[in-house]
Amino acid sequence: MLHNTPGRLPLCLVILLVLVCGSCGAVVISGHVRDVNGVGMTGITIRAGGGASTSTTTGGAYSFTVTAPFTGMVGPEGSYQFSPMHYEYTGLSVDVSNQDFIGSPLLFGSGHLSTMLSYYSVERGAAVWGDYNNTGTLDAAAAGHGVTTNPPVLGPAARVFRGDGQSNFSDTRASVMGVQDAALAWGDYDNDGRLDLVVAGDTGSAYVTNLYRGNGSSFSLVSTAGLPGVTKGSVAWADYDNDGKLDLLIAGDSAIGRIAKLYHNNGDGTFTEDTAISLPGLSECCVAWADYDNDGRQDFAIAGNTGGGYVTQLYHNDGAGQFSEVLAALTGLDFASLAWGDYDNDGRFDLAIAGITANGSRITHICRNTGSGFLEQDLGLPGVKGCVAWGDYDNDGRIDLAIAGDQNFDDCPKVYHNNGNSTFTGYLIENVEITDAWAAWGDFGADGRLDIVVAGHQTSIDYPCTYVYQSQTAAANTAPSSPTGLASTWSNGSLTMSWSAATDTQTPQSGLSYNIRVGTSPGAGDVFSGMADYSTGYRRVPAIGNAGKNLSWTLTGLPARDYYWSVQAIDSAFAGSAWATEAFLPDPTPPVISLGAPSASLTNVGPVTCSVTYLGAYSITLAAADISLIRTGTANGVVTVSGTGLSTRTITISNITGDGTLAISIAPGTATNNSGSCLGVGPTAAVTVDNDAPTIALGALSGSVTKHGPITCEVTYGGADAITLEAGDVTLAKTGTADGVIAIAESGSTTRTLTISGITGDGTLGISIASGTAHDAAGNAAPAAASGTCVVDNTAPTLPTLSVSPQYANGANVTASFGGSSDTNGVTYKLKLDAGVYVDEVSPKALTISSLDEGPHTVYAKAVDPAGNESAEAHAEFTRDTTAPTINYVWFEPFLISVGDPVKVYVEAGDAVGVASVTAEGAPLHSTDDGLWMGSLTAAVGLGPHDVAVIASDQAGNTTRWAASYITVRSVAINNRAAADTILNLAGQNYVFTVWGRVSVIDLDSFSLDDGSGLPVRVYYPVHGLADGDYASARGALDVTNGTPTLIASVVTRRN
User: Which of 837, 875, 834 minimizes the C-alpha distance to 855?
Assistant: First the structure.
């Protein structure tokens, strides 16, 4: 089996050969090696894997035998690019012929020349050459889907690489946003002599068209540009309205759909869409500028997919910002590529177009500019979905065409040599297939030979690639001669420049283009950038000149002034000649002076500056003596002049004092040129001078005494235009241990509220405000200010005294008496009753208790200082009692008693809060441990019952009355025998009896008396105090109901 690309044998033929030859033991491999023109190449070594080799003979034929079955590769060797590179066989057992190779000269070195560019490869994008750092060697910018990091990760990428002219490139790590499906272009949009870069594409989250301003070493985003983001598009610079500033043509998919728009450069970092032209929106497109009809105005071509079809259209610049479509009937293309170039050196730009047609085929056609139209030609170039680019790689004076991308036969990048007769011969750049490719010419080695960069998708590794190929051309290019015969005219703001044609050793005169630069000083290009070194003529972009094929060019809309300009010739390899001897067009009018507005319309002490601008001055003599200071009121100041050069001066008014207004005017004759001197100018607008400072007033603190705050203070400003008061401007004036935290809140346009919170300690706090916390428009500052003070007290008062009277109450009120607390700042008091709320009170305080429940109650008191600190809680209790005691019963001992004898009274009384006293007939009784009240009375005179008034009182004064009685009877002396007589049962209710005898103690409360009869009488007399053997008498009531007479004695007398 064999593997090859263009020369593969049909499988049926291989099978047939096997059937015929069987196992031959050896096989013959043969073919031819021819050059790109089909001519046989002799002496080319053909080598097989394993070492067998042969050389081509006449006609480029070769043949050699290898052992069958053969597995390996067979290919040519030598300093050529061969297609295919080799044939590969597996188990080859039959002879094979027609194993042909096409050899291309080795025009370019290895594409892996730049490791950095190869590592950070991109596809779906572009790579462009430009000397962004003005070192005289080309740098490169690349953007697309590619390597974004190290180690590699694929995504939207964009990088700028610095070249050293020795095939080395380093990543500048420029601040350029990564994009894919990208387009990019170099241009000097601000005419500062340094290249700027526009990058368009898909960031992965948005479509952008970003403009980056170059400063010679880095790039910064021009955020004001206002360009619409596009992807799968194209961008191209050109000065379409001849005002000296590059404008931008943009096409592609945008957020609102396909667009194609022209944006005018306003000269201030902004761009405005030119709505005078309406273009079809495009995607997978290309746009390109050239003055194809040499009328001194840039025309353009566009090609791409409109969404409704494919187009390739030309637009003629009619001047005054107007364009008209040229009905050239060119083939519409998708995935389009366009390239302007004068391939036949007839002095007119032709257009190469490439892409996919409506029927799906790929084409690469040359649209020849006949001078009266365009003739689309198929010159046998391979169709490509990718890129075409013109450049004279072999320095023969004819531009050749590079083709890279998806082609009809193979996808290897190629260069097609321009044979000069509308035919082209193709040569491999490298035998590596790269699809979705971009190619760009540029002499990065500055050796007079065009090199090429190719970026795209390498199919063999299925990965993005960016390869730089260095030209191996033997003959170096030489730059053209400088144009001569420079002349210029001025008319109504238009500068017309003309020159004579240059010559070149390689490029015919008609094949040259021209590049001009215009400046306001010698050697400058600040009016129209030539994007070239203004000393050496080195081109910083490999491109045709900005004046095209013309030998004259006009810039319009310019102010009258001196202009310096020059022109260089650009050959087919984009080499620029030295600049022609600079031409000078003097300003045809006397100098023009203009006086800018003062730097401030209001001030106090200044300084105030005013810019003076001169146009067309050869000499400026402005001095302070030429300036009049126009004053009102008391305003005054000192005028000085500064600045050098021939365009500007600065007038400064300093040391300003007073109040009023100041203005300036300038006398005539402060600048001259060949046409005369300038006029006077002024006065300027008046500057108001104000030296009255704003006022500041601090209100009273919201409290004179506080514990924790917050305390507020209102700050009021008068005459202030800006209030800048912040916490750092406020000082807390403190004494003792007092402290706090200041906060500021805006409470109105002229007021601020200061709050002191988080207050701690003891002492005083006040507020002072530094000067300068408010300013008026003139810059006058408010003075310092201070507030009063506030006492900070976090020490509680001492415990107050508290008493309540009465403690037992049956009335409507009790009186609370309180006081005795001390505090540095004085105290007030507050009371509460039971679980009520505290109320501020003054001692003594009568408390209404009529609604209270019976029982104990508590009065509480606190002392409070002005800061709100509270003392500990004092308390006192009282009892409300409106219920009288109860008397359960009253009894007398004895019940029957002799007149004058003591009678014991017993009272059982009770009360919820306790009985305070009990009286009987006014005599106080005393209480016993068992809750009884007892005492004694002397029996009243007179026989019979006697009522006794018993009164029980509680603590609150509530009383209960009880009436009880005892009986006085006669006293009769009897002996013991009589006492035992039952007749006494009847007499015992009317008499009391007296008995005598010897004592026998029974217990503490009882004893017996024996009068010698042998019939003792028992006597009950509590705590009698007698002893056995005593002789005593006892009088009392006799009880014989129990058999044994018992005398309940009221009187016992020891009679020893």
Answer: 834
1023-1053 pLDDT per residue, tens: 999 999 999 999 988 877 777 788 888 899 9
- Name beta bridge partners: 127: 142
Query: Is residue 23 scored above 50 in pLDDT?
Result: no
Structure tokens at 653: 């008014």
> What is the pLDDT confidence band of residue 694, given thresholds at 50, 70 and 90?
very high
Count of helices and strands (H, E) across the chain = 4, 85
482 located within any domain: no
**Does residue 586 have a cis bond before it (omega within 30 degrees)?**
no
Residue with tokens 């049926």: 12
Cα(793)–Cα(234) distance, integer angstroms: 78
Assess whether 653 and 710 both reside in one domain.
Answer: no
**627 and 675: one domain?**
yes
Q: How does pLDDT run across 592-617, given as a tens digit for each residue?
A: 899 999 999 999 999 999 999 998 88
As for how many domains the chain has, the answer is: 7
Nearest-angstrom CA–CA distance, 511 and 573: 11
Q: Do 498 and 374 fall into the same domain?
A: no
User: Tokens at residue 637, please?
Assistant: 């100041």
- CA-to-CA separations, 168 to 116, 149, 439, in angstroms, rounded: 8, 20, 19
Q: What is the pLDDT of residue 1?
A: 31
> Residue 654: which CATH number?
2.60.40
Beta bridge partners of 516: 567
> What per-residue string of b and e applies to 402-415 under the rule 16 or more CB within 10 Å gives b?
bbbbbbeebbbbbb
Half-sphere exposure of 937 (CA within 13 A, CB side): 31
- Within 10 angstroms of residue 514's Cβ, the number of other Cβ atoms is 26
Residues 336 and 217 in one domain: yes
pLDDT band at 4 (very low <50, low <70, confident <90, very high): very low
3-state DSSP of 860-918: EEEEECCCCCECCCEEEEEEECCCCCEEEEEEEECCEEECCCEEEEEEEEECCCCEEEE
Question: What single-letter DSSP state applies at residue 166?
Answer: S
Q: Spell 61-92 as b/e; 16+ CB within 10 A means b.
A: bbbbbbebbbebbbbbeeebbbbbbbbbbeeb
Q: Tell me: the pLDDT tens digits for 813-869?
A: 999 999 999 998 899 999 999 999 999 999 999 999 888 888 999 999 999 999 889
Residue 739 sits in the same domain as residue 650: no
CATH of the domain at 960: 2.60.40.10
Contact 354, 286 (CB under 8 A): no
Q: What is the pLDDT of residue 111?
A: 62
785-792 and 705-706 strand pairing: parallel
Helix/strand/coil for 350: strand
- Tell me the CA distances in angstroms from 924 to 383, 917, 933, 937, 951, one per residue in order: 143, 7, 9, 10, 9
Residues 6+ apart with CB under 8 A from 27: 65, 66, 67, 68, 69, 70, 92, 93, 94, 95, 96
Residue 675 has pLDDT above 90, yes or no: no
Mean pLDDT across 928-939 = 86
Q: Are residues 467 and 361 in the same domain?
A: yes
Domain residue limits at 565: 488-585
Does 117 map to a domain? no
**Residue 414 scores a pLDDT above 80:** yes
Q: Tokens in use for 599?
A: 């730097």
- Tokens coding 151: 């180690």
Task: Specify whether 779 is located in the same domain as 809.
Answer: no
Asked, as a colleague might, if the bond just before 6 is cis with ω within 30 of 0, I would say no
pLDDT above 60: residue 14: no
Asked if residue 749 belongs to a domain, the reply is yes
Q: Which of 8-12, 49-53, 101-105 has the highest mean pLDDT?
A: 101-105
Contact 841, 814 (CB under 8 A): no
| Residues 210, 148: Cα–Cα separation, whole Å | 18
Tell me if 845 is assigned to some domain: yes
Amino acid at 295: D
Q: Within this chain, do residues 356 and 414 fall inside the same structural domain, yes or no?
A: yes
